[in-house]
Amino acid sequence: MIEAGAPIGAVQAALPLDALENRILLCHATGLSRVQLITRAEQPLSADQAARLDELVRRRLAGEPIAYIVGKREFFGLDFAVSEAVLIPRPDTELIVELALERLPAQGRLLDMGTGSGAIAVAVAHSRPDASVTALDVSEAALAVARRNAAGNGAHVRFLQSDWFSALAPGETFQLIASNPPYIAAGDEHLSQGDLRFEPSGALTDHADGLSALRSIVDGSPAHLLPGGWLLMEHGYDQAAAVRALLDAAGYTEVQSWRDLAGIERVSGGRAGG
User: Fold this and answer.
1) Residue 274: its pLDDT value, please?
2) What is the 3-state secondary structure (H, E, C) of 113-125?
3) What average pLDDT does the segment 12-27 reach?
4) 69, CA 20 to 30 Å: which among 226, 262, 269, 272?
5) pLDDT digits (tens, 9 = 90+) for 125-162
6) Domain limits of the chain?
7) CATH architecture designation of domain 83-271
8) Contact 69, 21 (CB under 8 A)
């Protein structure tokens, strides 16, 4: 039990989590910034602050992700609101944003499929206000979070509720399609570990072999990609070869995979034929 009246600095040092998480939760409970925690270290914790902090720490010790507890996560230098309706944006996914920005031409049109929190779409639109960005998700709850993130970051994105390509107009085309779809196979032990226990299962797993959503995107993209347009997809640590095979079989060219900061082949893609 966290007691009121103790100096904030002493409370921070005594919290049972790692230093970064202690600071994040104490900032959230008190409304103080990181700098203010230092400059007001001798300020006593109020009863309300102590009660809030005690509840936050309890939730974290129960395994709830920090991002869900505080309701936000930084991604590509931007603040993103998150809730249990969406996956928590991860640094690995910044790779697909970087690849998309390198390949999207001036005034280009980009489609983000399964947008979730809007991380990919909003990051691209914020970096490239000249681009026309469309984002799809089957979940209206996820789209509500994504719209909030677009507004909060001053990014113009068109959002559509859609089961993959179904809401797009026939013949609507893009220079680039990007996606971070569900790619964890049903029954994978990781689904019952760590933060994944709290995240929406439908955004994590295809409830099949882990490749069914990727197949749907590969098969449906040619109808919506301009000749020479890029398809970029994030996937699991052991799926790069299988995804490249899907792209090769569908007639994509320049098929390749790119490694994340951990050296893992995290994104694969190719270009649509003429």
Assistant:
1) 67
2) ECCCCCHHHHHHH
3) 92
4) 262
5) 999 999 999 999 999 999 999 999 999 999 999 999 99
6) 8-62, 83-271
7) 3-Layer(aba) Sandwich (3.40)
8) no
Query: In the beta sheet, which residues pair with residue 72?
Result: 81
pTM for this model (two decimals) = 0.91
Q: Where are the alpha helices (DSSP H) in the chain?
A: 8-14, 19-30, 34-39, 47-61, 66-70, 94-103, 119-127, 140-152, 201-204, 212-220, 240-249
Q: Stretch 175-185: mean pLDDT, rounded?
A: 93
> Cα–Cα distance between 22 and 247 in angstroms, integer?
45
Going by the annotation, the residues of the binding site are 114-118, 137, 164, 180-183
The residue with tokens 């994944």 is 196
Binding site, annotated residues for S-adenosyl-L-methionine: 114-118, 137, 164, 180
Torsion over CA: 119, 125, 131, 135 (sign): positive
Cα distances from 129 to residues 108, 118, 157, 181, 199, in angstroms, run 10, 15, 10, 25, 31
162's tokens: 């859609």
Query: For the chain, what is the largest distance between any 2 Cα atoms, rounded to a whole number of angstroms?
Result: 70
The token pair at 15 is 């919290």
Task: Pick out the residues of the known binding site for substrate.
Answer: 180-183
What is the mean pLDDT of the segment spanning 200-213? 85
β-pair partners for 253: 271
- Reported as a single tens digit per residue, the pLDDT across 65-107 is 999 999 999 999 999 999 999 999 999 999 999 999 999 999 9
What's the pLDDT score for residue 187?
80
